[in-house]
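User: Hi! Is it possible to get a structure for several chains at once, not just one? Here's what I have:
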Amino acid sequence: MITVRNLTRKYGAKYAVEDLSFHLERGEVVGFLGPNGAGKTTTMRILAGYLPATSGVAEVDGLDVLRESLAVRRAIGYLPEAVPLYREHRVREMLDFQGRLHGLSRADRRTRIPAVLERVGIAERIDSIVGTLSRGQRQRVGLAVALLPDPKVLILDEPTSGLDPLQRLEVRKLLAELSSERTVLLSSHILSEVEAVCPRVIMLRRGRIAADGRQEDLVRRLGGAAFVRFEAFIGQDVAAATRSIASLRGVRGVADRGRLGIHHVFEVQADEDLREDLGALALQKGWAVRELSWSRPTLETLFARIALDLDEKERAQRIEAPAALVAPTPHTLIELPLSGLSATRAASSPEKSAVPVAQKKVVYNLNPFDKGASRDLSRPKAIDDAPVPLPPTAPAPQTAPPKSDGTDPSRCERP
Amino acid sequence: MSGVWTIFRRELAGLFLGPLAWVILCIGFFSSGYFFVLGLAATDGDVMQSLSLALGGGWPFWALLIVVPPLLTMRMVSEEAKSGVLEFLLTAPVGDLAVIVGKLLAATFFMALLLSGVLFHGALLSLFGVSPDWGALVLGFVGAVLASGLFCALGLVFSAATQTPLLAAFLAFVANLALLTLPWVADFRGSPPGGALRVALRQFDVVLHYQGSFLRGVLDTSHVVFFLAWTAFFAFLATRFLEARRWR
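Assistant: Yes, the chains can be modeled jointly so their relative placement is included. Here is the combined structure:
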C-alpha cells in the first residue's frame, strides 16, 4: 500500500531523511517512532504530498506521490501534527469544506459528517466554532476531517497529543477499529500507545531507519539483554562473588554496578530468568539478599537505546570492562547444590571442583503460600533430568563475540 | 474546477467571518456615496461624470485599489501558512493553481461588492428620473472589477511570498503604488510623446488602459486582454511562490 524506496529529503545541506526504504501492506498498522527531529514528520509530509522528496520514490497504492499527486491525496487521510483547521468556522462547515474538496455529494456529506463526528466522539459539538474548542476536541475534529472521505490510507502525525488519558484510550480503540479496513501509519511519542496499537514499528534515528519489524522481534533483537538485578550483602571479596555469579549456568555476563550502602549491586545478564539460581547461590554463600529482580527489555528501553545511542556507549564501556569478570574459568565453577539446600556438602565435595560435571537446571518451589507443604523442599525439582554435557576442558567464553557490524547489537546472543 | 469553487466559497466565508471585511465595506460604501454627492454638486448634476468619478475617473478609486486589495489578500496565504492550514490545503485533492485562483476570485468578488455602490447610485438616479448611460456604467464597473482583480493577484503574490500578513500587506501596498506610478517615469525622464520609453511604459499603464476604454463605454478586447494577462501572470507567480513553500 505504501512503498518508500531510498527516500531522501534535504533542507539546505542538512539531511532530514536519508535513504529511507520501507513497505506497508494493505491493512497494516505501523507505528513511527523516533526522537524529535528524527524525520518522522518529514516522511509523513512527503507521503501526504506536502513536501517533495529530494530523491527517491514514494508510492501510495501504486501511485507516485509526486507525479500522481492529486490521486494520492484523494486516497489518503492525512492529519498533520498542527491539526490545521479554520478556527473561524463551525465544525460542520470545516467538515463540509473537506467533503467538497474530496468531491463528496451533498447527500453523502449530510450523512457522513454526523457519522464521522459520532465515531470520534464529538458529535455534540457539531455546531461549535472550531476556535472555541479545546485542544483535545480540535484533535478529534482533525481526525474526523481526515476520516471523512473514507480514505484507504491514514497518515496520522501524533494523533493523540493533547488528549487526556481517557480520550487517548478511545482514540486507541478507534484506531484498532479502523485498522481492520485501512492501512495506518501513525507517529507518536507515547510509547505505550504504539505498543498497544501497532504490531509493527519503524524507528527512525537522525533521518535513517534504526529498526523496522514486529515489536516483539525488535525488542528481543535490539532491546538489549535481559538481566537479573541482584543486590545483596556479599562481604568484602567482591571479585570472588562476581566469579561465583559468573559461573552460574546460563550467565552471559556480570556487570558490577557498585556498592549501595553495605550492599553490592550486580546486573547478571542471561537469556532466561536466573533468579532462582541466584537465590540458591546466595543461600549457599550466606549472602543477605536485598533485591532479586528480572528486567526484560521493553519497547521503551529499545526506544531509549536508539534515541540515546546507548549501543555505542555501552560498547565503549564493555571494552573497558576486564574480561575476567565475565568469562568464568573452569576451576571457579560453582556447583548448584543438587542434593538439597545443604551448602556445605556441595562445596566440600572435592571431586566436583576438579571435573566439571554436567549440571541440571533445578527449580525450587518458592511459592510463599505453599509453605512447602505439597513438596519436599529439601529436594530441588529437576526440570531437565538428562545431564547436559559441558565442554570438557575450557568452556567457550560465555560472552558473545564482539559485534561485526554497527547496526545489529546482537552481541547478547549465544555464539 | 470544483476545487476552485470550493476554495472560493471558503475564502469568501472566511472574509466575512472576520471584522475586517465589514469595516472595509462600511468605509467603502460611505466614501463612495460621499464622493458621488460631491461629484454631483461639482459638475452641476452631470450624472455620468459624477458616476465615472467613483469608477476610476478620480483619485479616490485608485486610492481604494492601492489600499484595499492588500488588506484582503494579506492573510490569504501567509497566515494560513503560519497556522498550518496551508498544510491541509496543499494536501487536499486540489492543485496549487486552483487554490490561488479560488482565493483570487474571492478577493475580486469582494472588490466587486465594494464597487457595486456605483451601480446602486445609478439605480437611485434612474428612480428619480435621470437615467444614466447604463451601458457605459456597467462597462465601467466591469473594467473596475478587472482592474481590482489585477491588484488582488499582485497582493496574493506577496502573501504567498512572505511569512507574516503585515509584511505581505505592506509590500503589496508598495508594489501597487509602484505599478500605478510607473508611467510617470517617462515624464521624469522628459521622454518625448513618441519616445521609446513612453511607448514601452504604456504597456504597463493600468490607469491609461482603464480610462482609455472602459470608462468611455468602449469595449476593446485588447484592454480586456491587458488586464486578464497581467492578472494571470501574477496568479501564476503567486502559484510558484506557493509551490516554493513546499521546498523550504
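Chain B has one domain: 2-247. Chain B touches chain A at residues 2-3, 6, 9-10, 13-14, 17-18, 83-95, 246-248 (CB under 8 Å).

User: Great, thank you!
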